[in-house]
Design goal:
Chain B: Catalyzes the deamination of various vicinal amino-alcohols to oxo compounds. Allows this organism to utilize ethanolamine as the sole source of nitrogen and carbon in the presence of external vitamin B12. The complex is a heterodimer of chains A (about 450) and B (about 260). Chain A is α/β, with parallel strands linked by helices and about 450 residues long. Chain A has 21 helices and 14 strands. In chain A, about 45% of the residues lie in helices and about 10% in strands. The longest helix of chain A has 17 residues. The chains are: A alpha/beta (about 450), B alpha/beta (about 260).
Chain lengths: ~450, ~260
């Protein structure tokens, strides 16, 4: 069906819901690349007026990709909770935006409606929201998960320690891990992107990380971010798998381009659960997503990149993950051109995920061909912390020497803790105190690598 | 050259004995919660170098002189300038009309080559300017019996632009040398992609790649040329490139788990 609205005597027509949602989106390079999005700023606002008047129920009833041909659509439709949806079923998209910002929509209320919210509803509402709205609503929501510690509690901000090395050198990874631990980071996960994506290499890396974790009794989890099929094989061969990692996207075709299906993800989740390695909980999945992933695979089905990204969170939600993060600035300037677009997308992704009940974190990052720099990252990390993001990724000196892009530094995590009074996961914070790594003000001591019992980590045979 | 690890070699540096394990920026100093200014400026210097490499223009005439007496031909993509190139990878994959005409004219006057080499600026013209001519010569020395087309020098070019170049010249194989996305520690890394039976629409899975070519820390020119020549001979024997050559090609990069595109 077609939609229309008039502004200043000009009538704007939008052929279908995909077109309308794309036109209502804030401008970004990926939608232009796909031939989507508003052709003028006036058309963009006209699309927002038209979108604001649509009933949420109409969004629910309009499949973006046909039910018959896409398993993500089937997942969204089949898992929709009509009881949870009932309190908001009478609202338009515009009414939903206003209600989300109202004081009536408190933490408990938002948690109750989450199973009734579809990705397309969340995306539609986000297009009618300014950045402060995305921050304000997300900050009301908490999504708490557990494996060996508790992530997502109010007053906390966790971090993924990412000690990548260009050739997977064990000592190089251990040294970067030590550096991060001395800054009190790594409570979300100590997670390595392997340079060589093989089962043997994955087992060796996991073995090293697990030894470090168990030797020092660190209440956290480790992960090698290899393909899910490798992880299944690693589990079968007795590898020390805490979490199953996989990149996911918002359509069946895009997931196929990643070499995954819902069935494979389920198989991997079952395998990880069978190990019973979590001491506090059984959230065993870790997903990464990012705007532009579906388009880069030619599998976006004419959907704007922010809406199709939100559909990936429906996939994530079905597997009760411990961690999810958008790799927001990583995919490149053809999708998010500059700091402004990266910051907006980071806030959108976080808001949509949280509204759906997904434990969202973020890799606050950019590549060297994007119009962005560390000043933009300072902005996004601050805004996301205010918005209550579950965790952020940190690497030594913000410079990932394996993936060749810039993220946040260990120092940035200390800065956010100092600015906002947020701390690591409580179990991890207790460990830091047992190791005498924090002073009486709760600040990380300035420790050298020969500090106490951690020193063995840095020894050549450590 | 600038130090990659900014705090290295300071007297009394407690991390001194660990810095040989990684070029990551480990053991940075702190003032309050922040990095000290020296480390901040070293990072900004590295970022500036990477950005300048992205935005540098390829000097095609200089590259042509460097490969002489082997003939060469200059082409350009449909992306008119760098901002367009960065936003529109689809335009960077297509030669413009004048370039296609020049390629057709060349093809009409010579017999089809076995291989066409393309030097494309990609995301680092610096890498191409610095390494492409030497790598091309090193490959030629290993390609006895191959009919090699004039070197095609391409600006605002993506990897797939070589598909149409190779098709226009009637080449059996196209080998594109292209600047990889600069990182903070390496801004001049060259990547090489081989595509059998090039034509528009070839997918990345139908290519083989030799990446991380730069000196002294990456894959050296001579080693890269060995690898490329080996792949070329294997491609000619099997009449294909891509996953069919997978077992013999270098290990796949593990960041396949993140969407990272070829230049």
């Amino acid at each position: 069906m077609a939609y229309s609205s008039s502004l200043d005597g000009t009538r704007y027509r939008f052929d279908d819901l995909r077109t309308l949602l794309a036109a209502a989106s804030p401008a970004r390079s990926g939608d232009s690349l796909a031939g989507l999005g508003a052709r003028s700023d006036a058309e963009r606002v006209a699309a927002r007026y038209a979108l604001a008047d649509l009933p949420l129920r109409h969004i629910l009833d309009t499949a973006m990709v046909p039910y018959e041909s896409d398993d993500v659509t089937r997942l969204i439709v089949d898992s929709h909770d009509t009881v949870a949806f009932a309190p908001i079923a009478h609202l338009t998209v515009g009414g939903f935006r206003d209600w989300l910002l109202s004081h009536a929509a408190d933490e408990a209320t938002l948690a109750a409606i989450a199973p009734g919210v579809t990705p397309e509803m969340a995306a539609a509402a986000s297009k009618l929201m300014r950045n402060q709205d995305l921050i304000r609503v997300a900050s009301k929501i908490r999504v708490v998960t557990r494996f060996r510690n508790t992530i997502g509690l109010r007053g906390t901000l966790a971090s993924r320690l990412q000690p990548n090395h260009p050739t997977d050198d064990m000592r190089g990874i251990a040294v970067s891990t030590l550096d991060g631990l001395l800054y009190g980071t790594g409570d979300a996960v100590i997670g390595v992107n392997p340079a060589t994506d093989s089962v043997e290499n994955g087992i060796a890396l996991l073995d090293m990380l697990d030894q470090v974790r168990s030797q020092y009794g660190i209440p956290t989890q480790t992960c090698v971010l290899t393909h899910v099929t490798n992880t299944i094989e690693i589990i079968a061969r007795g590898g020390a798998v805490d979490l199953v990692f996989q990149s996911i996207a918002g359509t069946e075709d895009a997931n196929r381009s990643f070499g995954v299906s819902l069935a494979v993800l389920r198989e991997a989740q079952d395998a990880a659960l069978s190990l019973r390695r979590g001491t506090l909980g059984d959230n065993v999945m870790y997903f990464e997503t990012g705007q532009g992933a579906a388009l880069s695979a030619g599998a976006h089905h004419g959907i704007d990149q922010q809406t199709v990204e939100a559909r990936a969170y429906a996939v994530a939600r079905a597997f009760r993950p411990l961690l999810v993060n958008t790799v927001v600035g990583f995919i490149g300037p053809e999708y998010l051109y500059d700091g402004k677009q990266i910051i907006r997308a980071g806030l959108e992704d976080h808001f949509c995920a949280k509204l759906l009940g997904v434990p969202m974190g973020c890799d606050v990052c950019y590549t060297n061909h994007a119009e962005a720099d560390q000043d933009d990252m300072d902005g996004l990390m601050t805004l996301l912390t205010v918005a209550g993001v579950n965790f952020l990724i940190v690497v030594p000196g913000a410079d990932d020497v394996m993936l060749s892009y810039q993220s946040l530094s260990f120092h940035d995590m200390l800065t956010l803790r100092g600015l906002f009074g947020v701390g690591p996961a409580p179990e991890f914070a207790d460990w830091l105190d047992r190791m005498d790594m924090r002073d009486t003000d709760g600040r990380m001591r300035l420790l050298d690598p020969q500090h106490g019992r951690l020193a063995r980590l840095a020894s050549p045979h450590g | 050259m600038v130090e990659v690890a900014p705090a290295a070699d300071l007297p009394g540096d407690p991390w001194a004995s660990l810095r040989d394990a990684t070029r990551a920026r480990i053991g940075l100093r702190r003032t309050g919660d922040a990095q000290v200014l020296d480390d901040v400026l070293a990072f900004q210097h590295a970022h500036a170098r990477a950005r300048d490499a992205v935005h540098a223009a390829l000097d095609g005439a200089a590259l042509a002189r460097a490969v002489a007496p082997h003939p060469s031909l200059q082409v350009r993509s449909l992306a008119l300038d760098r901002p367009t190139y960065l936003r529109r990878p689809d335009l960077g994959r297509r030669p413009d009309l004048a370039s296609l005409a020049a390629l057709s004219q060349l093809a009409a006057t010579t017999s089809p080559p076995d291989v066409a080499f393309v030097a494309g600026d990609g995301l680092s013209a610096v890498a191409v300017q610095r390494h492409a001519a030497r790598l091309f010569h090193a490959c030629l020395l290993r390609l006895h019996g191959w009919r090699v087309a004039p070197l095609v020098i391409a600006t605002q070019a993506r990897v797939a632009l070589a598909d149409e170049v190779g098709a226009a010249l009637g080449a059996s194989l196209v080998v594109v040398m292209i600047g990889e996305r600069p990182g903070l520690s390496v801004a001049d890394s060259l990547g090489v992609y081989l595509t059998w039976a090039p034509r528009a629409g070839r997918r990345d899975a139908e290519r083989n790649c030799v990446s991380n070519i730069h000196e002294p820390d990456g894959l050296g020119i001579e080693a890269a040329a060995d690898r490329i020549a080996w792949l070329m001979n294997a491609a000619r024997r099997l009449q294909l490139t891509g996953v069919g050559l997978k077992d013999a090609s270098p290990p796949l990069s593990g960041d396949g788990q993140r969407v990272r595109l070829s230049p």
